[in-house]
Amino acid sequence: MINSDAKQRSENGERTRLSTNLIRNGRENFQSRSLKRAAK
After folding, report:
1. What is the CA radius of gyration of the chain?
2. What is the C-alpha separation between 7 and 19, in angstroms, rounded?
3. For 12-29, how does the pLDDT look when each residue is reduced to its tens digit (9 = 90+)?
4. Kind and range of the H or E element at 11?
5. Which domain holds residue 39?
6. Residues 4-36 as b or e (16 or more Cβ within 10 Å = b)
7. What is the tally of structural domains in the chain?
8. For residue 40, what is the DSSP state?
9. pTM for the full model?
């Protein structure tokens, strides 16, 4: 019981970390696109 609970928690943490990375990457991509557009 404790094992499955810990496993679930680590999976949730992994998913959260991945989505946080995706959000951060998306923001960086958006900023670099904006900078390129402004540089033209």
Report:
1. 17
2. 18
3. 999 999 999 999 999 999
4. helix 2-39
5. 1-40
6. eeeeeeeeeeeeeeeeeeeeeeeeeeeeeeeee
7. 1
8. -
9. 0.55
